[in-house]
Design a protein that fits this description.
The structure is a single chain. The protein is α/β, with parallel strands linked by helices. Helices cover about 25% and strands about 25% of the residues. The strands form 5 sheets. Strands 3-2-7-19-20-21 form a 6-stranded mixed beta sheet. Strands 13-14-15-16-17-18 form a 6-stranded parallel beta sheet, with helices on both faces. Helix 6 runs parallel beside helix 7 and helix 9 packs antiparallel against helix 10. The chain is globular, with a radius of gyration of 20 Å. The structure holds zinc ion (ZN). The site of zinc ion has 5 residues, from loops.
Length: about 400
């Protein structure tokens, strides 16, 4: 399918270095972006679907780097089906598994955790709930896993490893496990802060400095924060990614964002929701944290969006998260919410409002155009100007 999005008021690139792009048009061919900014009349006229954005803002599809997926579009923790499809209506086009710890009766032995990770990776490899890409299969680091196990997992397509819920005696027991997982080429992540599962123990700055995972998961607490003094140490003494989560401590999320900017480390700050959890299912969680950073920590709205898109893609090695030719065609149209005080999506976010979503396109396919069922209504009205494909774009059927 070829899709042209015309009449854009603003384009947010997702790239921290150059967060805004000039122009008013995006052309998509198949699952990739073809052009950003301008396009010839012939390129637009040749599209199968033309989306009139009515002056809205285009951003890359949001990447939630901390989602508790299990199997299917189901969360056992909240006993709810369809949550991932609902997150698409919150602008999330990619969900990255925070490890499949919520699978009821999850295995804890070496063969069991390996099989769980491989099965999860396979189950989501080609299946897109609501059009969303899910990067699943994060092996839970348990004592007994060896370098050979991690090599085997990497060969089988597992890309992620998670420290924090294993049957270790102390968090320092993760040090060799993280080192072996890294050596095998896995991207390593680590629970940060007070324990969220009884008995798993707090993980603080000292542990992170010894372990050196690629990503400090919910550095602002999941949901309980580590000591304030540890934030600066992690930022200054390591190069790990600083993941700020919606379902965490808001004060330390803002503290972390300010410190990251002070120490020129904002490129390491990434956003996730850490949901579904006991905190709930939050289809708009990414938009909330973007608005919190922009309105309370003086982060420019387009930079907060980059932390939720391009920065996540860079850390996790994804071909999405930026609006650039050849990148994955995951595009969200944002607008100021109807009835608000601001005129544009970015101004609304800076004001602390939840931006309204007018369309979500994933893998080059418009999943809905017009109205998200989760956000407030948009001020402007995006619409299908022309379509030659037999598809209902209203989002009411799927
Ligand atoms: Zn989590």
């Amino acid at each position: 399918m070829k899709v042209a999005i015309v009449n854009l008021g603003q384009i947010v690139s997702g790239d921290l270095g150059e967060p805004l792009s000039a122009g008013d048009t995006i052309v998509i061919e198949g699952e990739r972006i073809a052009t950003v900014g301008s396009a010839s009349a012939a390129a637009v006229e040749g599209a199968d679907v033309i989306v009139d954005a009515d002056g809205m803002t285009a951003i890359p599809g949001l990447i939630d780097s901390h989602v508790h997926v299990t199997f299917g579009d189901y969360t056992p923790r909240q006993r709810t089906v369809g949550f991932l499809e609902s997150y698409v209506h919150g602008g999330v086009t990619t969900a990255i598994s925070a490890s499949e710890v919520h699978v009821p009766g999850r295995p804890r032995d070496v063969e069991g955790v390996k099989a769980l990770a491989v099965a999860a990776q396979r189950c989501f490899a080609d299946w897109r709930p609501g059009g969303m890409r899910v990067i699943a299969g994060s092996v839970i680091l348990e004592p007994g896993l060896t370098r050979a196990d991690f090599d085997e997992l990497a060969k089988k397509g597992v890309r992620l490893a998670k420290a924090g819920f294993g049957a270790v005696k102390t968090a320092y027991d993760y040090v060799p496990l993280v080192a072996d997982a890294k050596a095998a080429g896995l991207l390593t992540t680590c629970h940060t802060g007070g324990s969220s599962i009884p008995g798993s123990g707090a993980i603080t700055g000292d542990h992170l400095l010894r372990m050196r995972p690629h990503v400090s998961f919910h550095i602002n607490g999941g949901p309980t924060a580590m000591p304030d003094r540890d934030f600066e140490r992690v930022i200054v003494e390591t190069d790990m990614a600083l993941q700020v989560c919606t379902a965490g401590n808001l004060r330390t999320a803002l503290l972390c964002a300010r410190l990251a900017r002070t120490h020129q480390a904002f490129h390491r700050l990434i956003i996730g929701t850490d949901t579904p959890t006991g905190s709930g299912i939050m289809p708009l969680g990414m938009l909330y944290t973007i608005a919190h950073l922009a309105s309370l920590a003086d982060v420019a709205p387009e930079l907060a969006i980059a932390a939720a898109t391009g920065s996540n893609a860079r850390i996790y090695g994804l071909e999405s998260g930026v609006l650039e030719p050849a990148c994955a065609a995951d595009v969200v149209l944002l607008d100021a919410p109807e009835g608000g005080t601001q005129a544009t999506a970015l101004a609304a976010i800076g004001n602390g409002d939840i931006a309204a979503i007018g369309a979500v396109i994933t893998a080059g396919v418009p999943r809905f155009v017009g109205r998200s069922r989760n956000t407030p209504a948009t001020t402007r009205k995006a619409r299908i100007a022309r379509s030659t494909v037999p598809q209902d774009f209203s989002g009411t059927t799927h």
